[in-house]
Amino acid sequence: MSVPPAGTALAGGTHGPRALRPLLDTVLDALTTGAEDRAGPLPPGGPDAVTRAVRDACHPILPAHGTGPHAALRTLVHTLAAGAADPADPHCAAHLHCPPLALATAADLAAAALNPSMDSWDQAPAASALEALTSRALAALVYPRADAPDALVTTGGTESNQLALLLAREAATTDHPTAGPLQIVCGANAHHSIHRSAWLLGLPEPLTLPTPDGTLTPDTVHTCLANLAGHTGPLLLTATAGTTDTGAIDPLPALADLAAHHRARFHIDAAYGGALLFSDTHAAALDGLDRAHTVSLDLHKLGWQPVAAGLLAVPGPHTLTPLTHQADYLNADDDTEAGLPDLLSRSLRTTRRPDILKIAVTLKALGRHGLGDLVDRTLTAAHTLADLIEAHPHYELHSRPTLSTVLFRPTGTTDTALATIRRTLLIDGRAVLGRATTPTGLWLKATLLNPHTQPGDLTTLLTLVEGQTPR
């Protein structure tokens, strides 16, 4: 059989790796030269400069005659790398946007080459078995005392939270078909996807409780749930283990007690903080997690996976019954009865990637202790940054970090000046910091997710901010 040209060769089969190898050399070279040209955490010049560079390098996007595979890869990958926000740079610390492990990225390449589609067993025989084994092992970390914990693979915290609300809504409908709609109670610290999912699912606007210290106050929650005693519908209390703004963790045991006392369903969004389960040092901060009906996890945050790597953990498969769906061309009843696994009922998506492969490779390679060590290192870096801020005469620290998020600002700086400092560093391409608004005003946010960040990197980051601070 003749071998197709490189541009039309397929990635799978016995000839696929041979076709991929020279193309990967081109990609890796382009990633290197692009990062060298960028020479920092972000391309300088702002949106207009980046858009112009992309347009000039890539025009025309759809030529009448192609440039060939190597030229196209070299041009576009170099351009993307030169114009990227690089989370591996220790001064790129704005968001929950992690630098992926090279190991996990290599596994993701294999997933792309094999291209299993996780909507029927005959499209993904081994991948479906791997997903079942790996997702259940991770669910067992969340629910160590459950008989058969399980987890669905999602695109991240937003989809996990949406599924949690959907399962709560459907469980309530099944248990109390004549009751009123599900009423969600959450904190002002909750991720925006709680409100957005309620809207998407046709549920009432969540009752949002104040979180003046960044977390839910049990007394406030108790009063709210008690006042809802006359509500004709079911209740869902949501808590957060790792808020987006500060990394704070709600008082999970107390909230679990309140949910049980008021007969409310309990969901915990642990998309950020769930990875503490890998750490012997920090796992106790998640006490009470196993008392939730559903838990969101996200390993493309403190798990160092390429996007996407989310999960929704549940204590048993019965929780997932509302997702049951049947289509003859994917999970015909007689196929399921004959023993072919039903994948369609494990997601709201149909076609989906085998995102579990990179997670499974990472777990196998590093083990729980290896991942826990990365978690410990990252949280230590956050405390080092907090120490540097507290020792600095011109900086103010918002609070000691719970996870890896540190809020700070130059002392006496106005909110307007602070926003300008952040944008100036972005446009110059020298540092990528986030912003968080609390009851005490605007703060710069450093979300540290690089486990290899050194104290000198953090000192330089503070120096960059200080250089833009008006005196």
From TrEMBL:
<dbReference type="InterPro" id="IPR015421">
    <property type="entry name" value="PyrdxlP-dep_Trfase_major"/>
</dbReference>
<dbReference type="InterPro" id="IPR002129">
    <property type="entry name" value="PyrdxlP-dep_de-COase"/>
</dbReference>
<dbReference type="InterPro" id="IPR015424">
    <property type="entry name" value="PyrdxlP-dep_Trfase"/>
</dbReference>
<dbReference type="Pfam" id="PF00282">
    <property type="entry name" value="Pyridoxal_deC"/>
</dbReference>
<keyword id="KW-0210">Decarboxylase</keyword>
<keyword id="KW-0663">Pyridoxal phosphate</keyword>
<comment type="similarity">
    <text>Belongs to the group II decarboxylase family.</text>
</comment>
<dbReference type="InterPro" id="IPR015422">
    <property type="entry name" value="PyrdxlP-dep_Trfase_small"/>
</dbReference>
<protein>
    <submittedName>
        <fullName>Amino acid decarboxylase</fullName>
    </submittedName>
</protein>
<keyword id="KW-0456">Lyase</keyword>
